[in-house]
Amino acid sequence: MDENERRGLKVLITEDSEDDALLILRELKRGGYLPEAQRVDTASDMQTALETSDWDLIIADHNMPGFDSYDALALAQQHDPNIPFILVSGSIGEEVAVDAMKAGAHDYVMKHNLTRLLPAIERELREAANRRAHQQAQATIHHMAYHDHLTELLNRVEFERRLNNAVESARTEDEIHALLYVDLDQFKLVNDSCGHLAGDELLRRIAKRMQRSIRESDSLARLGGDEFGVLLKNCPLERAEGIALSVLENIRTYQFIWSDRSFKVGASIGLVRVNGNEDASALMSLADMACYAAKDKGRNRVHIYSESDKQMSLRRGEIQWVQRLQHAMQKDKLVLYHQRIQSLQGSDSHHEVLIRMVREDGSLIMPGQFIPAAERYNLMPEIDRWVVHHACAQMHKELAGNSPGILFINLSATSLSDDQLVKYIREQLQLYGIPPDRITFEITETAAISDFDCALDLIKTLRHLGCKVALDDFGTGMSSFSYLKSLDVDFLKIDGGFVRSMLEDPMDHAIVEAINSIGHIAGIRTIAEFVESQAIMQRLSTLGIDFAQGWAVHHPQPFTEHRNPVVAPHA
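Above: the chain's sequence. Below: its structure in token form.
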């Protein structure tokens, strides 16, 4: 066999006979190996050999003066139990061989029958490779279970486990720790303008920069999206604030370059002391609230949680509203209301869907108290789908009673980019047999302007489906009229702030009149909101406004035959 075709093999031979070792090497060469071997015959020499080199195979004689195969096997297993260990002896009995195999030896071969050596080596090398591959797979699975796949940082599950342990040590051993909640600023700009590959790379680089600012004993995790957590073990509040400022500076001074574009990002950091009085879940909520307070105060700063902080009280109140809202949806504590939209130029009437939450005593909670929290904590997409489902169910009952009106349903700003929403709407219309032109979806002007492309796509798709679209709160934007050329809608709902005071304020009166005139030129029907007196309704009628909505027209009422929990974005 050509020397270049031989397979390399590093063999550690524990053998007191040099001649026997040479026989083993000759057998290996005959089998196509190019062995690199070392012979040892004492425990100290074997220990040194194991520590100074990596071995593919250990071959051991059983009987050596003062050093037998049991001693060699113990050293091998202590170093690496995956290395194939084969006994090659001239005097080993079956009982000894069985004991050696039970102790961890992989095979045994008699010296007078070395023809068994090569097959045994081949088999054990394959088995060793399989063991290592299996262990590597297990290690990878274990790593994935506790680490974020993108940044290689800890994931939320492992971070919260460590935070729980920190809470326990703070409670039982009076240790003081600190928790940082880090939310990147301007990350969405990078993601939206350069794509997710750029966003992922930015997260990886920021993760590395954050690691430079913390101690080896600290735990850094990606909690999700562009949010990170840092657990500072045995760290007083003053020291934790210094570390938080260092993290912030390391992020703030970083310049991210992607495809010849340069970006600066910042961070808002919430800091909470871990003293054993709050559990891990509560601490995460407090740190999140502190982080949002940092954002509210201008971003790129560290905010330390304080019980007396008004911003914290506000944020905690919002979280409590979120919990109450989730409970209300689960426990039938939301009811569907409606308010009539009355024609001023004829006898037509339509209705807008509204929401109320029911307290334990049966009294009502107005949407202005809980919708802001739902918007901040991203519950609105779920709520919008509830609206569509239950409103269609109600419309089905109205159709059975031959009610001719249109039902107006609000869509929140977050639904503009929900690419599955129209599919859901189509399914609900088909499920309840609702003609699409009997449903009008309301989108606020500010939401449409802030996400203009998504608004255009949604409006186009809804109208293609056969539904109507209303632009709500019209007139609040700085360039309201210019958008009418692009937004193909059926109704303009004139913002109630102008309508309410139009009789006293000539400017508001002129704005209402102008919106109606421009709307009619564009072929769009107009609806005045917040109509609170007969005098205003008369003036609106004189101006040619098509519809009026407000307490002078109709007080919101529950759907009398439909008391199931149904929700709407806002009143």
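Residues 156-306 form a domain with the Alpha-Beta Plaits fold (CATH 3.30.70.270).
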